[in-house]
Write a structure and sequence with these properties.
Chains A, B, C, D: Belongs to the aspartate-semialdehyde dehydrogenase family. The structure is a homotetramer. Chain A is globular and about 60 Å long. In chain A, helix 1 crosses helix 12 (about 320-335). Chain A is of the alpha/beta class. The termini of chain A are close together. The first copy, chain A, is about 30% helix and about 20% strand. Chain A is built from 12 helices and 13 strands. Chain A folds into 2 domains: about 5-145 and about 320-335, Rossmann fold (3-Layer(aba) Sandwich); about 145-315, 2-Layer Sandwich (Dihydrodipicolinate Reductase, domain 2), CATH 3.30.360. The relative contact order of chain A is 0.15. Chain A has a 6-stranded mixed β-sheet with strand order 9-6-10-13-12-11. In chain A, helix 1 links the parallel strand 1 (about 5-10) and strand 2 (about 30-35). Chains in contact: A-B, A-C, B-D, C-D. Chains B and D meet through helix 7 of B and helix 7 of D.
Chain lengths: ~350, ~350, ~350, ~350
Amino acid sequence: MDRVKVSILGSTGLVGQWMVKLLANHSFIEVIKLSASPGKVGRKYGEVVHWFLPGDVPEYARDLVLVSTDPSDHKDVDVVLSALPNDVANAVESKLLASGLNVISNASPERMNPRVPLINPEVNWNHLTVLREVKGNWLVKNPNCTAAIISMPLKPINELIRELHIVTLQSVSGAGYLGISYLAIDGNVIPFIKGEEEKIDAEINKMLGNQYVDHYVPWGKNVYVTTTRVPVKYGHMAVIHAVLNDSIDQKQIIERLRGFRSFPQEQELPTAPREPIKVLDRVDAPQPMRDLDPMAVSVGRVLVRNNILRMVVLGDNLVRGAAGITILTLETMKALKIL
Amino acid sequence: MDRVKVSILGSTGLVGQWMVKLLANHSFIEVIKLSASPGKVGRKYGEVVHWFLPGDVPEYARDLVLVSTDPSDHKDVDVVLSALPNDVANAVESKLLASGLNVISNASPERMNPRVPLINPEVNWNHLTVLREVKGNWLVKNPNCTAAIISMPLKPINELIRELHIVTLQSVSGAGYLGISYLAIDGNVIPFIKGEEEKIDAEINKMLGNQYVDHYVPWGKNVYVTTTRVPVKYGHMAVIHAVLNDSIDQKQIIERLRGFRSFPQEQELPTAPREPIKVLDRVDAPQPMRDLDPMAVSVGRVLVRNNILRMVVLGDNLVRGAAGITILTLETMKALKIL
Amino acid sequence: MDRVKVSILGSTGLVGQWMVKLLANHSFIEVIKLSASPGKVGRKYGEVVHWFLPGDVPEYARDLVLVSTDPSDHKDVDVVLSALPNDVANAVESKLLASGLNVISNASPERMNPRVPLINPEVNWNHLTVLREVKGNWLVKNPNCTAAIISMPLKPINELIRELHIVTLQSVSGAGYLGISYLAIDGNVIPFIKGEEEKIDAEINKMLGNQYVDHYVPWGKNVYVTTTRVPVKYGHMAVIHAVLNDSIDQKQIIERLRGFRSFPQEQELPTAPREPIKVLDRVDAPQPMRDLDPMAVSVGRVLVRNNILRMVVLGDNLVRGAAGITILTLETMKALKIL
Amino acid sequence: MDRVKVSILGSTGLVGQWMVKLLANHSFIEVIKLSASPGKVGRKYGEVVHWFLPGDVPEYARDLVLVSTDPSDHKDVDVVLSALPNDVANAVESKLLASGLNVISNASPERMNPRVPLINPEVNWNHLTVLREVKGNWLVKNPNCTAAIISMPLKPINELIRELHIVTLQSVSGAGYLGISYLAIDGNVIPFIKGEEEKIDAEINKMLGNQYVDHYVPWGKNVYVTTTRVPVKYGHMAVIHAVLNDSIDQKQIIERLRGFRSFPQEQELPTAPREPIKVLDRVDAPQPMRDLDPMAVSVGRVLVRNNILRMVVLGDNLVRGAAGITILTLETMKALKIL
């Protein structure tokens, strides 16, 4: 397979570091540029990065000299992967797109742009096919971390659902390494995350809907979401109460979830989890400290009572919810020969 | 007002300690006996208790010699207050009742007994009036800590509700001082609390229903509950999505909640909060570390969208949810002249 | 007693908030100006401050309009109290001094200036008397929070000591409300606090030494210090191994510590703790969650073996270590008629 | 090499689980029996164990049926490895020894028995050689977890030391999985661990001394220790202030620590870390969350001032401090042909 050359924007942040780590020794994606904020440009990645992840900085990245976000610094790249913070992403990504570059981005701006596919590969890889009809370069967005995790177990049962009640318990790393102070969150719950509830509702509706070249038709279900921040380091959890059109045997639900496979699994893409939804039988699962999987979503406490399906969902907000989903999207595009 | 003489069962546990503390200098309730497990009987409370609460052991309690749970040790008492653990409560309380004593208890056994009033004073003080028709001694139960907190803001809007979706985030103290180890819960969420979901559903339906001398008629609404344990020390939180019969202006909801007053407020009972439901305007309220009130319930994030009312509720699981509710129940019974 | 008019610099930070709180209803100190960073100037304190402390913003402060740090905004003030961060303190305080104002400051610059008294009132109130010989306005500094706590139990035994080995376990609030992120410190220990070890050594030597108008003579003992940051919210702890000149009975040490009273106690100053050193007998004391006192220092685990005295010391880094010590210093100066 | 057949006592506890995990796929040690408390005997390990460690229960262990601690259940075993709690260890181990079995044990009883070698392999592997002169079966003890960690960096500089001041910051797992409740330790420090200070002093003196067949001669230095429990899950830290006989260049100290290799390294024993002492240059190292190594000890903040050497030491209390040291001891004995 041809190699794909990429650069990573925001490479020294938590999500950027995960991209750097996950792309070490990738079978066909090659990182040739790492970019960071102006103060770090020109210095070696290994000397500048405050490495937060287990293990050491991957060897290939250590001596890469950090470049700017300017298009001129990304000329020989096939795709730019963006792990930029939301507040700077729009300006930078717009410039890169205007210069003719392809971008896959985790940042929130333009996610709801009707022409921009919003992709969680197992859920709506087929939305990518609209890009075949697009001339020139493109922008692909990945969803909000929580929407990425929640949309997975909704996919195989989506036509059974009438309405959703979702309460999230989201980890501190979702706000970045320095995002929340110990005094603010230790032993506490903050039942508010700015903008998050609206994003989850809209993005789930976009991903579970239909995408066309210049517009999309949303799924069209009411998604009532309350988000909370809890003193957990890694892993977002969500309790889902799904109002179903009819009651249905809960064993059937579990079978559908367990049996779910999609394009990334069929193609055996390098970053795809073999089993994207792990249904756990332990009565007190899933727990962030015990059951977190980088790319698969863990589901527990599945129960149907009347026409209400309850399940508890857990996923890795930094990998499935951010760095990993971007890479899997790129792998999917390659397999679809869009790239 | 005549003084009421009480004894406290389980006085060295977390809930028992709160009873001991709240009854120091009470205007008409007098603690004359403290009881504890066999190994501690005969020793002074102040020497035996591992005091967990802020401040010192109240002076009145220090030199009280601990008695057993045997009826003979509670003869000259008007009411026995029980803070016993659920697993020993049934045997002990049955014996006390058989001997002719009155009991108000926090423990779970007999809560759903059709003849036993289950009381959260502001919510269903009127259920106590059936005891006027009862000859001899009585048993009154207080609800599960989470049911005590959640039932409060449901009361003033209960006739608007068709169905409830509730997700709780409960603190570690709900399992007792030694109940959950640091390794098990720090940085973790455990989305399962044994028996809790069933209790919350059943007890809310009992308290919001009608009580008669020998049976009760439940509220009759579906209450879908998922309970989780979070690394918070004190305070239980619940996210409530209430399906309403019709849409309703959210300002009206807030007014009803804020304006709610009940018998304990009208009677200005010593332990009654002046304002039982505090609706907080801060966008990120309520938080256990900032907004916990011993007897009032804090409500935030009130939102109506379509016919769904969302609110986040926080209450003190050890005071409103346990020790305080027992004392307020006794005060209410005294004001109703049942005692 | 004449009233003293003060302003508070850095009034919206953690230490500034404690000053605002402690000065509500003070018998002779009156806060007439609150100052904050440029972006907040001109707005009401109650609207701007993100209040971190228990209880509400004191009523007197709510409607005070924030002023700048410029001398012109502090003209009618007797003393300026500074709770500024170390990095901006020097420039601001210099300007205020140059304009003829008196300053008592918590910030680290100028603490080791030979002409500036460094004051922990119970320990070296007498150093303040040199100011009687100074014409014009003055600067008084308070020590580093840990030095404030540690110096207290050293004072009554200082002449017995030959050398000190100190290991600190310092709480997160010492770095400010937003100072340390949850991801960095939860479940972790960071055995390094920049500049702290040098400050503790130097400041203890200055406070336990002799102060003259234009120089000081240090105590002259070796103080070997290792500082660590632990996941605790409030309260700094230190384990002290003091090498004594001779062995001494540990009961005598305890008596000296317990019996210690100084000028603030004799004068019954409003902020002075009645008993500045609390020696706790509980075998596992002192603990931040159980034994923290705002102005007194708690001491436990006192043991003499050979000529080594071991004790564990705990104090409130924000009150005794910062806001409270400044107020007590002002009270002491008033009692000494320096003001 | 001949295979060694072992059984593990206390195999379902934290330390026992680590032994089970570390011995999966061992090149010459084979676990043939797992033993647990009476209530679990007769059931399969995989069904009974509440597995706390990362990853799954090793395959070999899942179907092993748990046996008792009775000698008759360990007949065909070469060595019994004991991960028993201290309070039951003595009775059980005595019985096994009396029946002629060999035992290597982590439990504290008999550690100071003059005839029993107390072994941290890199530190005093040579103490094992006295067993060559012993007829019949033997008991070997491993030290207290903190003593195991601290003794390592003391070994290569032991002859320079006159006296030690040690303050420990020990993790919660040292008290077992259920040992310390969240309410007791979160956000707190407990400056007392029962019996720990005496053990560390005595055991370091025994390990750094000389062992003979029927007695030992201790190192003979004063070791002043204060132990504290901190809210950290895994890893014990110690701050060491060593009073040296003379001042010495700190680079020399670092070289000695870094260059230290011992018998287990020379023999390339399977469980031996290649570099037993890792000296870290990062200014804020070592930290439990970032720098914990299973078998090596991490050292940071090395500083010599006057004749005082300061260093901060971190080690894994469950592996180097318990399960790993036992296995390494067995490997060492095999290499010494004592077994």
